[in-house]
Specification:
The complex is a heterodimer of chains A (130) and B (372).
Chain A: E1 35-41, H1 44-50, E2 57-59, E3 66-68, E4 72-75, E5 78-79, E6 96-104, E7 119-120
Antiparallel strand pairs in A: 1-3, 1-4, 1-6, 2-3, 4-5
Chain B: E1 2-5, H1 12-19, E2 22-23, E3 36-40, H2 42-68, H3 79-90, E4 97-103, E5 111-116, H4 123-137, H5 147-160, E6 166-171, H6 176-191, E7 195-200, E8 205-206, E9 211-212, E10 221-224, H7 237-242, E11 246-248, H8 254-257, H9 260-268, E12 278-279, E13 289-293, E14 319-323, E15 334-342, E16 345-354, E17 364-366, E18 368-370
Parallel strand pairs in B: 3-18, 6-7, 6-10, 10-11
Antiparallel strand pairs in B: 1-3, 4-5, 4-15, 8-9, 12-14, 13-14, 15-16, 16-17
Helix pairs in contact in B: 2-9, 5-6
Classes of the chains: A mainly beta (130), B alpha/beta (372).
């Protein structure tokens, strides 16, 4: 880079994501090994009866199809009540054929980065997801 | 090398906010300041660039030596991470970025103070904010800063080689510094055509088979702004040890991120002009020395020859000693030069200055330009 360089700086520095406001996704995350799960349904009607078509996800292909509902939190083995941040376990759980558990909060709990606050990004909303 | 006094842009705070950085208005002296700037000659930038280029090779050699000679304990690296580090080194897992902190006053050779190889921040201000400052304030001038191009280029190379497709970018989002650094890296990956997703580190899930994101999708590769030496204390570390999930930075970066690497470098390259004498035992150094915790951060618990020490949480940690080479003073400010590496290339620099000789949490970022 050094020998043939006529410039040391970038030609352009454009931002794609940081230049626009994202939508803040409600987070179900939490520490202390919080457990979450989602219902598994044999068909889409079972899932949409509990939730809605927009949050039901098809998994597998053709004969192996199954439908997954949204993730909700479980406390002491019992689903937590449905809240604005948690879709809950669904109203017709008898139609589900199983649950898929997920444990969250296994990284970075009881930690603080200990960095000094140099600036804030509070004017921006962040899109967390996947 | 010269420190200039300048008039800030009239709307500089708004300009920073547009880019995503809102300064703490309560701070007596804000983190970003543009009432000053450092001006470098082209030959000085060449000197810094060549020093960093050489240091990259030396760091590789020292890392290889530590791993082959099993000197992890001396560097304070937990044994469980050492095993991952050795494996990732053997498999040549690539690194994304790092920052050399150098002592330089425009005269003589730059001297390595430390290498931030695992969780460097202050990237966004170096790559983006000071570039925009230059565009508006000195549009014809140059700056040692192609970090942005370098990052997008590296992601592009990795995408074309099939090394990465989707990458999750994880950090502790309550820390704005970490969040902005992580989100910026995500931005560069997306610009290179990768599928980049931002996720709080404590929201990463384990479904019994693999790590998953908030939509329960498997995480195949994860950038984490979180030190490798902290991970063994986390509940998910056993799963991580057995997981095929690729990590950025890779585990071997824990080796050069330990300040013990300074002593190893001096052993391997004694008298090198870009190094200061360093040893695990301060009594082996002639003259005054600075004592640093092996895995300390942000200038914490650094002890000067005067006995004065910065505060922090690493007081009980094993240390390394480095010959005392006080930072130069410009108007009472002590600048440290951070040369950024992207992959294996030096790509630019950021200057932070502090009233104290130890660059710590009170340091300010000051933009720079070349010549003009």
């Amino acid at each position: 880079m050094s020998g043939d360089l006529v410039r040391w700086r970038s030609r352009a520095v454009d931002l794609r994501l940081l230049g626009t406001a994202g939508s803040l996704m409600t987070l179900l995350a939490g520490c202390s090994g919080a457990t979450y799960q989602r219902n598994v349904y044999k068909d889409t009607s079972g899932c949409t009866a509990d939730y809605s078509a927009t949050v039901c996800v098809q998994q597998g292909q053709q004969m192996a199809d199954r439908f997954l509902g949204p993730t909700y939190r479980v406390k002491s083995g019992q689903p937590s009540p449905c809240t604005s941040r948690d879709p809950g376990a669904g109203s017709f759980m008898s139609r589900r054929i199983g649950v898929e558990p997920t444990v969250r909060g296994g990284f970075a709990c009881d930690r603080s980065s200990s960095r000094r606050r140099r600036y804030t990004t509070s004017g921006r909303s962040w899109s967390f997801g996947g | 090398m010269e420190r200039l006094h300048l008039d800030p842009r009239p709307d500089w705070q708004a300009r920073l906010a547009e880019l995503g950085m809102e300064l703490e208005t309560s701070a007596a002296s804000p983190y970003w300041r543009e009432d000053a700037a450092y001006r470098f000659g082209g030959d000085e930038v060449e000197t810094l660039h060549e020093a960093a280029d050489e240091l990259i090779d030396m760091i590789d050699a020292a890392t290889d030596h530590v791993i082959r000679s099993d000197r992890f304990d001396e560097l304070g690296i937990p044994r469980s991470v050492a095993e991952l580090a050795a494996r990732s080194w053997r498999e040549r897992e690539p690194s994304l970025y790092g920052r050399f902190d150098l002592r330089f006053d425009g005269d003589g050779a730059p001297k390595l103070l430390e290498y931030n190889a695992d969780t460097p921040t202050a990237l966004f201000e170096a790559s983006v904010v000071q570039w925009h400052w230059l565009e508006e304030r000195f549009p014809g001038a140059d700056q040692y800063n192609s970090i942005h191009e370098g990052l997008i280029g590296l992601w592009n190379d990795w995408r074309r080689a099939g090394r990465f497709g989707r990458v999750h970018f994880a950090c502790m989002p309550e820390d704005d510094d970490d969040l902005l650094t992580t989100a910026y890296l995500q931005d560069t990956a997306v610009q290179a055509g990768l599928d980049g997703l931002l996720i709080p580190l404590d929201a990463v899930g384990w479904n019994g088979r693999s790590f998953v994101d908030l939509a329960e999708a498997r995480i195949e590769a994860m950038f984490k702004l979180y030190p490798w030496d902290w991970l063994p204390d986390d509940d998910f570390f056993p799963q991580l040890q057995a997981s095929p999930m690729r990590m950025l930075e890779p585990p071997w970066r824990v080796v050069p991120s330990s300040k013990g690497i300074l002593a190893v470098l001096w052993e391997l390259f004694p008298g090198h002009p870009n190094l200061l004498p360093a040893a695990f035992d301060a009594s082996r150094l002639d003259g005054p020395s600075v004592v640093k915790p092996l895995l300390g951060r942000e200038g914490a618990n650094v002890r000067l020859p005067s006995g004065e020490a910065s505060d922090g949480a690493y007081a009980a940690m094993p240390t390394v000693a480095q010959a005392f080479a006080p930072l130069p003073a410009f108007d009472g400010w002590h600048p440290v030069i951070g040369v950024w590496t992207v992959g294996r290339e030096p790509r630019g620099m950021g200057v932070r200055e502090d009233r104290n000789l130890v660059t710590g949490r009170g340091a300010r970022f000051v933009p720079h330009l070349i010549g003009h």
